[in-house]
Amino acid sequence: MKRFAVILGGASVLALAAAANVAADTEDFPPLQTLGPPPIPADNPMSEEIVELGEMLFWDGRLSGNGTMPCSACHLPDVGWGNGTPISFGYSGNQHWRNSQTILNSAYYTRLFWDGSQTSLEAQARAAAGGAVGGNGDGSMMEMRLRFVPDYVERFNDVFGTDYPRVSQAWNAIAAFQRTVVTDAEQVPFDRYLAGDEGAMSDSALRGMELFNGEAGCIACHNGALGSNQQFYNTGVPTPPEFNEFPEFQLVMLWETYAKGASEELYRTVTDDMGLYHVTKRPGDIGSFRTPSVRELVWTAPYMHNGVFATLEDVVAFYNAGGGEDQTAGLEPLNLDDRQMADLVAFLEALSMDEPLLMEPPEIPETATWAEFDQ
User: Are 346 and 289 in contact (CB under 8 A)?
Assistant: First the structure.
């Protein structure tokens, strides 16, 4: 079966537990439910041909500065469509400054990147390929590389009706492919439970679901089919040790602070990622990050915008303690006992597929010369 035919739904880390030490009323928030087909923008319709082209481009290093940093460099299927490390590596072996988010179910987000700086997968693909510590690619150079690939010339013509590839069309194709990288609900215990299979989840997971919707208050922010309200909060996530131990992390964080237009005062004093502030420039947004989905957590560790938590147990313990220092989200300790925390982890695990979504890289077409084009 082609992946284009299985756009079913799912997505990926526990963020806010509760805005106060009270049980959340499940009627106040959209319940968790099975995801439907992802939304398709009218100006980028889906087809098997555009998905196949997007899959090739997703693995093609031509869409980067030095030709070796495709999307797949930081989003590998065998590590949950991220890169499995707390902080991603950067362009050409340099250091990045944030965790490489999974692209699993990214089709359902309305705000992309940890700070919500992009509002579509098409824009996200362009920003990642051109970002200085991401792909670091120049649009005109990347487009010219595509024009020297006869297979791409033919495929872009078939899909878009143009004589030569346009780099903007490449972002459309990659976005179309990403809209097929979604959860198969039939493989998710929670979704099978919702469909009527009462034995799909363990007793521990069922108790965890009650906690999630009630005493633990997770539903306050992890609600709806995606398991995220897509809002932004500062929960006091601790700074990873790498930022204090290695100058490379500090350097890139300061460079990003400067490049994103922070004031000189902030540049001189900042010691951590400012998150949503980079987008809004509102002081109250410093340290706020988008609530991630609670789907596919089994396959997408480590967690948080900086990958500081290696396990779901770490995440649950963090929120059970009321979040971290200097948080502005209003979190308070939940005071769950060890069994309750284990039950909550069991439920979070039940929101993931039984097996990871794996995919073999496609064959990448070769570049031609002028002489070969003339033939």
Answer: no
Q: Report yes or no: 80 and 102 within 8 Å, Cβ to Cβ.
A: yes
Please choose, from the candidates 280, 278, 299, 252, the residue with its C-alpha nearest in 3D space to the C-alpha of residue 134. 252
Alpha helices in the chain (DSSP H): 48-58, 121-130, 139-147, 150-160, 167-178, 189-194, 203-213, 241-245, 247-259, 264-269, 277-280, 312-320, 338-349, 370-374
Quick one: tokens of 375?
């033939």
Q: What is the DSSP string of 48-67?
A: HHHHHHHHHHHT-TTSSSSS
| Residue 5 reports pLDDT greater than 70 | no
Output the CA–CA distances (angstroms, integers) from residue 142 to 57, 61, 125, 137, in the order listed.
Answer: 11, 10, 13, 7
For the chain, the residue count is 375
Q: Token pair 């930081």 is at which residue?
A: 74
Q: How does pLDDT run across 151-208, given as a tens digit for each residue? A: 999 999 999 999 999 999 999 999 999 999 999 999 999 999 999 999 999 999 999 9
Q: What is the largest CA-CA distance in the chain?
A: 73
pLDDT of residue 212: 98
- The residue ranges of DSSP E strands in 193-331, in sequence order, are 232-233, 289-290
